[in-house]
Model the fold of this input.
Amino acid sequence: MPISRAELRFLFNRGSGLLQRGLTSLRTRGVRVSVSRAISQLQPVPKAQRAALYLPEPSVSAPDRVPTSARPRASIIVPVFNQLEHTLGCLRALAAYPPSTEIEIIVVDDGSSDDSGTFLPVIEGLRYHRRANNQGFIAACNDGASLAKGEFLVFLNNDTVPQPGWLDRLLATFEQFPDTGLAGAQLVYPDGRLQEAGGIVFADGSGWNYGRFEAPDAPRHAFVREADYCSGAAIAIRRSLFAELGGFDPRYSPAYFEDTDLAFAVRDAGLKVRYQPASRVVHLEGVTGGTDVRHGAKAYQVRNQGTFAEKWRAALALQPASGTDADRAATHRGNNTVLIIDALTPQPDRDSGSLRLFNLMLMLREEGAHVVFLPADRGHAGDYTREMQQLGVEVWYVPFAQPLPTWLRKHGSRFDSVLVCRHYVMREVLPLLRRHAPQARVILDTVDLHYLREQRGAELANDPARARAALRTRRSELDVIARSDATFVVSEVERELLARELPDSRVEVLSNLHRMGGEGLPFEQRRDVMFVGGFRHPPNVDAACWFVDEVWPLLRAQEPALQFHCIGGDVPPEVQALSTRPGVIVHGHVPDLTPLLAGVRLTVAPLRYGAGVKGKVNQPMAHGQPVVATACAIEGMHLRPGVDVLVADDAAGFAAAVLRVYREPDLWQQLARNGRENIQRHFSLDAGRAVVREVLLGRG
Done:
């Protein structure tokens, strides 16, 4: 296929953009850091590989014992009819990698004629129940449920090999999403291919194992998703709900469609059915019932489809038509599909921009949107990517994500709206979006106004070269704002600035988004001072050095035992050198700030230049920790100096403000209380919900 003009423009914009940003980085960060970053970004991303599977050797040996508890949280119910070798393999897997949660294992023998009745009863810890007559899967499962003690029932086929960690991750779905009624595992074949990533039900009652024979870690299959149903080979449901719904419906006896019916009953009760890809189970499909729908037990699948279609006629009218593209059908429950593109995958424990984007995606998920995230570098960011997938975000990465022009050509028609973070990313992708996603609203998220930050840095450094670079950034940033359908800024200050620069452009405020934290320890039990800021951001380097050079000696003279906790990743040599000063501790990256936010007496934000709204101010306030800041650090944050925060711009004034908050309990309490109220009013998820609904979801 010939390359389009939009794609050629993309390649040109990307090349020229990389060059410009490289030159800017050289001026602001120096050669060593810039070269290091360039090397890390140009390294090839490792290709995804099939998951390594635990598969016990075929054997008729039984485990000596299996995990058990007198007070189980989960009851694992394994229905069996013959197939002893597979049953023992399943039990050996459960014994080899026991879950952290308390369990009991109940094997319900549905009248086996092999040696199951000899081998299974002697396994220590196993609850073995033998039925007098063979009546099929449904009767066996319902019997097992009646014997169970756990809060959760986990139905597990005997022809499965549950993988390490499967149960803990399956049950975690109910904690992560409290409205979950039923959760199902990812089923894979022994060769590592995907068997099912949740099931799809079409309007005629027919079903499909989504993702069948594809890669288990492909982006479409690797995130928590609402599903029409999940195969009964490995599902979890609360025992109380299962009883309330009447268990598996016996009209489908002996088997087939009972799991689909249960999923529809769960939704009918107002709860959700979710597929959990982090819970992986090998399923030897067809071992028990075969695969030929013309003969044997599998023939009931055809009969029961009609029974199911008649029972759920009204609900099926809302399902996708038979023949609908499986990828579209799998996400049909989302009422909007939103694509988000950023330069890199957000790392919410490292910088406030990432935390804001992560919480924005959380809000969109709460609003019922299907969220797709594509990092421009197409990299898999390890735990950060997996955390987003567990949030319910469809995240793309190599080798599954082709270069952006190709990927957008294939996927562009899916999206109702597209949010692009940072002007230089938008400059690259906007022509592609107009060509391949013409139906979508295209919104620029500035994160902060880059040209404003660069301009202020140039003025502080009195650097003409940096000033010229800021002018180039200004032209580029204003150009993409003018060509976008709408633009998000983080403060009224920036919105008013753009109203003067581009009066015809739609600009809305979507500020930092924070979830409220705990209030931590009382004043008397706290001590010390802290600063948080990622050091890839030059204003944070300047702030930390200025504070230690100019303010810290004044504070230590008054409070000799005081310590300064300097926190942030990517520590450059000039910041690391601060640790040689008395009382200064350079921590580097701290993944969980909660103990410091709960135990340190106050945070400082000594920024001398920058733009946007500062997470280093928002985050401590959300946890009830007072802040002393410069005027630049609180710009556009609705804070009242002396009421919500203390503000000073010179070293002596800053030191005096810190000492006041550090020594005066009443002032400390006032600032802590008012700071939390400010966050709740202006920077909580609820505070940003209205503008997100209107601009991104089109619900104005």
The chain is about 40% helix and 15% strand. The first helix runs from residue 5 to 29.
